[in-house]
Amino acid sequence: MSPVSSINPAVSAIAASLVTAKAPLRIGLIGFGCVGQGLYDILQHLPGFGAEVRRIAVKNPAKPRSLPAEAFSFRADELLQDPELDVLVEVIDDAAEAFRLVSTALRQGRQVVTANKAMVARHLPELVALQHEFGGTLLYEAAVCGSIPVVRTLDAYFGQEPLRSVSGIFNGSSNYVLTRMGQDGSEYAVALAEAQQQGFAETDPSLDMAAFDPRSKLVILAAHAYGVLLEPEQVLNLGIENVSATDISYAAVAGQKIKVVAGLYLLPNHQLSVLVTPQFVDPTSALYTVDDEFNGVVIEAEFAGPQFLRGRGAGGHPTGSAVLSDIAALRNQQRYAYPKLTTATPLAYTTDLEIEIYLRTDDELILDQLGFTDITEEADEDGYIVGYVPLDALLQHRDRLRKAGAFVARTGHVRPATHSVDALALTESE
Ligand SMILES: NC(=O)c1ccc[n+]([C@@H]2O[C@H](COP(=O)([O-])OP(=O)(O)OC[C@H]3O[C@@H](n4cnc5c(N)ncnc54)[C@H](OP(=O)(O)O)[C@@H]3O)[C@@H](O)[C@H]2O)c1
Q: Aspartate/homoserine dehydrogenase NAD-binding domain spans which residues (predicted)?
């Protein structure tokens, strides 16, 4: 008797259905740069995964490629028009074009994966609505912290549980620069040049260093973790372009490191605070150990307590791995539930807070404009001041702070603008 004929008919039926479910998925890949090539390479290593890249679209016909020329199309719309493709993977570097392609595909009711954080953060309400209206699915795990599975963790695993905070290091390039400065005592420009040489920072580093990139990621997580939809501009993003060795030493003397921390913090009265700024981090924080190009996320859940995820936030294989996971999820008919978007008591985003900051500047006008309400520490000779300022003032003057060469880091303490109650600690560890 052959092994097959000895199988119980019920088991055979289940096995047959699993085989059917594993029929090779036909992928249309739009973009064949760092992430697109990373995904392609991973799929070559996983023949048992049951997916094949059927078509690839790129932009520049003159560019040398690792595959024969006939493997490529130079019109992404041809892939949108191909009914034989089961999944479209959009990994191009142009957010406006990415939105056009993804929204067109969703209007066709298609299964789509994207890694484009700027596009998702900018258009999330519309992307959610298109999925409801036309029945397609969009997954974007790769858009937030590369290989770290944080979007699905928040959406599915913590979909019902209240979260006290979600905070982390969401940008590997700026973290690499800060790590080099901390370890070598080097100035910002030297550390940035090294990061660029090592491939950890872009030639134009502004999106990463001025914290626009982690802000997009935070806006996406706000929807999944708290059901709050935000425009990116509503959120304070302060970066590290003006950090100096003096600031790193100031932190080191206190046994701390400076990290760019992106955070969502639940406040009393159903309010949510959302910030991306440099922050002093001490060794009791899990984020203290997240160095170099790594990312880390701390989730403080009401009942589960603290959880810490750490991993590579960028690179072809780590980001390709997140795209692969989304493709597998699509094959299992999984989609984001956005469970907290429909909660009975929605949270209100608030900026009506005072934040304790360290500010180093020689611009007296900025000091006046920020309107310190309390000064905790001041050192004229080193040009820094520590104290509470209204968050709204930081939002209003963030461009001026950048242009004036000022460096701001928060201590982790905030209080309501009226400061009628005690200061709260907005860190994941206190
Ligand atoms: N790199 C990472 O580690 C990382 C991590 C997380 C998320 N992401 C996100 O993933 C996406 C892709 O990033 P990447 O680093 O892979 O970019 P990349 O290396 O610059 O590659 C971009 C690719 O998109 C193609 N492309 C651009 N415009 C196109 C168009 N209109 N039609 C068809 N193809 C087009 C380019 O074509 P040519 O080859 O012809 O130039 C190139 O192949 C971005 O949204 C990025 O934010 C990247």
A: 31-141
